[in-house]
Amino acid sequence: MVHTSFYYPKRGGSQFIINRLAEDLTILHEDVTSIHLSECTYTLNMRHKNIKAIVYTGDIRQLPDILSKPTCDKVGLTEEWGRELQSLDSNGTTTLLCECNKNDYSWVYLPGPETKCHRIIMTGNFSPENSATNLPPNRTTCTVEYSGHLSEEEMLWEVKSLPFDIKPVAYNYSKNSYIIHSKDTASLVQKTINRLADHGIFCCGRFAEWQYYNMDAAIASAFDVASKLSRYSS
After folding, report:
1. CA 146 to CA 134: how far, in whole Å?
2. What's the CA gap between 165 and 228, in Å, rounded?
3. Which residues are bridge partners to 234 per DSSP?
4. How many CB atoms lie within 10 A of CB 169?
5. Quick one: how far is CA 69 from the chain centroid?
6. Burial of 101 (0-12, 13-18, 19+ CB in 10 A)
């Protein structure tokens, strides 16, 4: 199985990987609300100018609204095409961060109809740094995961019946976690990605490429995009 063995950062969780990748980079934390193509360069948010190429890692459904109308015309992204992209469907995830009894598992899957959650991720077992220092020696942390949206009240009620003596700590709902395909999705997305790449916009990542990527596949895609950017470096 894909998760039988894996490496995990000792400190900082998955954010550690992002922090290392970000070293020596100049990063501006700013929502991109507009992309405008003028001749051969792009302008972001009407003020960051002379950009030769863009690596887009956001949600491909948002691009028709982010690209200016003249840019859509130059790229050939029609209004009907944009509406098709915006109609793509996805599924969210509700998670409950908890403390629980110590155990020897990484993932515990719950496929039966008796529970609404589908798995418990034993994040505390990935690294000692993932558990709070004030927990008793026989306790660790875990994340209970639900497909779709559940209220906090529903989750708090259900975890009472789960194993490992689970005690909730924090609740979160992520609206978009998993992409959903229909019979025409792959051709629509690939046509969009190819057209954008012809104009120096490269899609990379799960929601930008509309692919169910794990981290290894996302990084492989990033290497592929990086090789295509070499012609813009001069």
Report:
1. 27
2. 51
3. none
4. 13
5. 27
6. middle
Supply 162's token pair.
Answer: 């789960």
Residues 58 and 220: their CA atoms lie apart, in Å, by: 17
Smallest Cα–Cα separation from 90: which of 217, 196, 181, 169?
181
The DSSP string of 175-200 is EEEEEE--TTHHHHHHHHHHHHHHTT
Q: Write out the chain's pLDDT in tens, 234 residues.
A: 666 777 788 888 888 888 998 999 888 889 999 999 988 899 999 999 999 999 999 999 999 999 999 999 999 999 999 999 999 999 999 999 999 999 999 999 998 888 899 999 999 998 888 887 789 999 999 999 999 999 989 988 989 999 999 999 999 999 999 999 999 999 999 999 999 999 999 999 999 999 999 888 998 999 999 999 988 876
Residue type, 206: R
Token pair, residue 120, equals: 């418990």
pTM over 0.70, yes/no: yes
One-letter identity of residue 222 = A
Distance CA 205, CA 216 (A): 11
Residues 147, 93 contacting (CB under 8 angstroms)? yes
| AA letter at 88 | L
Query: Can you read off the two tokens belonging to residue 208?
Result: 């930008």
